[in-house]
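Forwarding the complex inputs:
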Amino acid sequence: MYISELDTPALTVDLDILERNIAQMATLCQNLDIPLRPHTKTHKVPQIAQMQIEAGAQGITCQKVGEAEVMVAVGIDDILIPYNIVGKPKLERLMQLAKQATITVAVDSDITARGLSEQAQKDGATIQVVVEMDTGSKRCGVQSPQAVQALAQTIVDLPGLDFQGVMTYPSRLEAKPFIDETLELLRKDGISVSMVSGGGTGSEVNSKQIGCTETRSGSYIYEGMQRIGPETVNPETCALRMIVTVVSTPTANRVITDGGMKAFTSYPPTPYGYIIEQPEVKIYGMSVEHGHIDVSGSSHRFQVGEQLSVIPVHQGMTSNLHDELVAVRNGQVEAIWPIAGRGKVK
Amino acid sequence: MYISELDTPALTVDLDILERNIAQMATLCQNLDIPLRPHTKTHKVPQIAQMQIEAGAQGITCQKVGEAEVMVAVGIDDILIPYNIVGKPKLERLMQLAKQATITVAVDSDITARGLSEQAQKDGATIQVVVEMDTGSKRCGVQSPQAVQALAQTIVDLPGLDFQGVMTYPSRLEAKPFIDETLELLRKDGISVSMVSGGGTGSEVNSKQIGCTETRSGSYIYEGMQRIGPETVNPETCALRMIVTVVSTPTANRVITDGGMKAFTSYPPTPYGYIIEQPEVKIYGMSVEHGHIDVSGSSHRFQVGEQLSVIPVHQGMTSNLHDELVAVRNGQVEAIWPIAGRGKVK
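Prediction (whole assembly, two chains):
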């Protein structure tokens, strides 16, 4: 089947670019001598996670238990969930996973640690734990090396938990003093650290320099416009394309497509995407079910029924809206992969 | 099951409020003597569409063929799709629907009309058609009464198509001259008009005043913050609530929940939602998987594990992210409805 035969809006990935992005990041991390633990929240596709592991990744990162469930279901056996897992339904699901694979979770409070320990004991499971540090991103995470030290001791003392080390996001050079002091405090307490996990696509060198034992990278898989900026978007490195159809050409300057916010997500609001066939035109707006294109800057005459290939802005949010990813090579459909992690927000 | 036992983030609807919103809009339209054709893109739940029909709606509106498919599957037999349906895969699906129910679609170009006619002939189906008018919203739609006249004649002449009339969105009083002139031109041509469809929650009176034969309203179902504005949000009329869990309390001023942009969508960026239990606090940001709350304005002491009920900003975009809607009355779960139209962007 050719791309042109697809019903639209259709989320597609160019396999040549995808394979190149995977290989390049694998090589980068090998050259840096830092293990890679790809974040699958960007793509949510088990087949792509398996490609990343085959390329040398030591395991994967999933942001939610539901994402980890679909990855364990295809046999992936080493997963970091850098998230405080709280509440009975999630703890029960987590322990089922921990019986099938090596599962590591982040904690930043006594309450989270104790909840994990209680459920692990109840279910006869063991869960690996890292302490999340806030090294400047002002989201979750304990606030000082001393707080890591105290929480680490609590974790070491709690049954069912296996203390591994620490994690932060993103890997900034400014985090080094915090990490160094933390590791020194833990060393003095005789608490061994096997994992210092850092992350963020583009921060691989930083992860190495601040002493991480692994680096988590997600958005490199599609090389999205959000990270690299609209000025430097490059169809040769951006693997994801939304195929949309022109449904209306109401005026000489305005073209409307069938891909709106429910296909692309609404974040961030501009520039809404890059049209590969006509990069000179501008997607000036989106309503919920329509894309609005200003074609005044183009000599191309758009026709109702014509298909356009759009590089979405936020590749992870966009992937989360679709059930299927169409894998394409040279304009032909090679496979249709379920985006099995889509909607797994629990 | 109590709400407090739900895994989170959980999208819930308060049944008392939902039933009241449905009854109030039905009464409003009866009093105005204008038929109501609810837009189901806001909720995407067949059970709610059936409640709207039981309350007197004459049919429903669906924005995409995929939404109409899930509604026809439960026996709803009168559906307007106010959209230009273009391309073979969609036309084939549309004609299958048209054999099972009365399906009306909008067109604003010869190309769309001819595509519909060809497929209708091929499949032995008949499709009802209205011409979409652009009466000021600058999206799809023909630009003048004369353009309606010409396209209407084309539709009347094409086999397989049954011309019904015109549609616009939203119903503005300024549209009356356009509509009046159009109807006069069609009358002179001897083309009979049985449908003048207007829409927009809050525009019911306008629809009546500009001569519509029906009014399409969607967002009234949940009475969302986006329409009424953050200042006037009222938990007694807003039916949708996202239950989230506090997963981190890293500092005295900051609380993090497990509901981020993948649960709430990112549009519009502020104010991100209204917390029913603590309306004095502010959701100041969301990352993809976390909600960020500034609690400096509250004396309440938030705890990891605590649940919060958030009224989302954009109810239709939020519903489109979730597989299930939990129907709740007095804090107890009465039903779990599949959001069968979720992700139906084709």
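DSSP finds eleven helices and 16 strands in chain B.
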